[in-house]
Amino acid sequence: MNKAVFLDRDGTLIEDRGHLSSPEEVVFFEETFDALIKLQVSFKLFIITYQSGIGKGLLGQRDVESVNAYVNNTLLEKGIKITDTYVCPHKNEDFCSCKKPNPFFLWKSAADYGINILESYSVGDHPSDYHLAEDAGGKGIYVLTGHGIKHLNELPENALTVKDIGEAADIILAQK
Ligand SMILES: [Mg+2]
Ligand SMILES: [Zn+2]
């Protein structure tokens, strides 16, 4: 069985600049590269991203795919492999089954890549990113980049909260 870290994209790996429609808008956090290089030694890395701009008609599926391809390729140039990228394209009112913190994509990764969710982590700047793995038997980590500070009061008191993706990686690797 493999262990995984499920990474949010916007506000966690790259700056959250709203609905991104093209690679030129992508700005990586400085800490992202080192953090993922360290994590991938022991964990498979996944990106799970909520792109409601598609469901709302603000973004095309292809816009999101081009941004994700750019993110993945930039990481790959640094030697970082993202095993898979999962996108929820729905808006709130769709009541879909794949919107975080629903564990839909966690189970998919378990089926497709033999991931043991109980030994896996989710990391992100929204309470749904924290709850994603935490509520499925793994561990959630909340980062204060992106929208992290804005939603901090919506988190359970005992939630593991860190400064950024760099600190998240250090804590994950210290626990394993
Ligand atoms: Mg986010
Ligand atoms: Zn969805």
UniProtKB/TrEMBL annotation:
Q: Which UniProt keywords apply?
A: Carbohydrate metabolism, Cytoplasm, Hydrolase, Magnesium, Metal-binding, Zinc
- Indicate where this protein is primarily found: cytoplasm
What's any one GO cellular component for it?
Answer: cytoplasm
What EC number(s) would the UniProt record show?
3.1.3.-
- Does the record's keyword annotation contain DNA-binding? no
- Which compartments does it reside in? Cytoplasm
Superkingdom per UniProt:
Bacteria
Please give the cofactor(s) recorded in the UniProt entry for this protein.
Answer: Zn(2+); Mg(2+)
Cite the active-site annotation: 8, 10
- Please give the name of this protein: D,D-heptose 1,7-bisphosphate phosphatase
